[in-house]
Amino acid sequence: MRVLITTDGSDSAKTAIRAAVRILNPDDRHLDLLCVMPVWNRNDETGRRKRYEERTCRETANILEDAKAAIRGDAVDVRRVSESGSPAAVIAGKTGDYDLTVIGALGTGFRNEAGLGPVASRVIQHALGPVLVGRAMRSEEGVRILIAVDGSAASFHAVEAVSELCDLNSTEVCLMYVAETPWIQLESEGDWATSSEDEMESSEAGTLEKELVREGEALIEDARKILHRDRLVVDKRIEEGNPANEILAEAERGQYDLVALGSTGNRDLKHQMLGSVSSRIALEAPCSVLIVTEPGETG
Q1: What is the pLDDT of residues 80-121, one digit of tens each?
Q2: Which of 26, 105, 190, 291 is surrounded by the most beta carbons within 10 Å?
Q3: What is the pTM of this model?
Q4: How far apart are CA 258 and CA 217, in angstroms?
Q5: In sequence order, what are the residues at sequence separation of 6 or more whose Cβ sits closer than 8 angstroms to the Cβ of residue 122?
């Protein structure tokens, strides 16, 4: 397993490294630590540029050494890599060469703990492979993982990524499906809010709602087969409503350490205006997020 771990020396990057060490499978794990420093962007070629480059080289070496010290000694191989350029562009360009890329949620210059910085946002948007946005672990022992499935190829790739990349020993996994029934309700005739339970179940919208729930059960069962492990605890959860809202609510309620989901990489007008589910989860989740983009669907 080849993993690219990016660092800029920030607290956010250090948190991401610690999270990755806890979450990832330690077997046959080869890690590349990458630090990207901005290039000298002034026109003059005086001694100031030389001093700048010497200083950034020293800083990069120290950052990479600190990052290596934060990794347990059970990694098969740890290699330190330094480059210069636009951090987002360099990191995104390398994501296709690794089984996983790890990045901090914020980076340098951010004091708060919530949100997603510009580098992480661009890497997620243009990634050619799975990206783990690392945040602080919420459990003292073991790992709790929430995997969202929706029937897309990308979501099943996310299940496969968890199976292949994560340490599933002492891990609890919950497979979650969200039926987007509010859209059905808005299209139904009459006042849904004042209808009786029998009327709702017998209506066309109610029938379709039940069909969506049955579809969710089948999708969860398919995902469970991918995760087949002895002694692995796999729970399921089916909710109705807005997928991003429900996933975020469950991530908070269940105190999960990781949310894993697929991204179709759509860049149509709807996603530009409203933001994809995966982008919103990466932005607002209270824990680490693993985003797996469907091959050939990057932005």
Answers
A1: 999 999 999 999 999 999 999 999 998 765 655 667 899 999
A2: 105
A3: 0.84
A4: 22
A5: 88, 89, 92
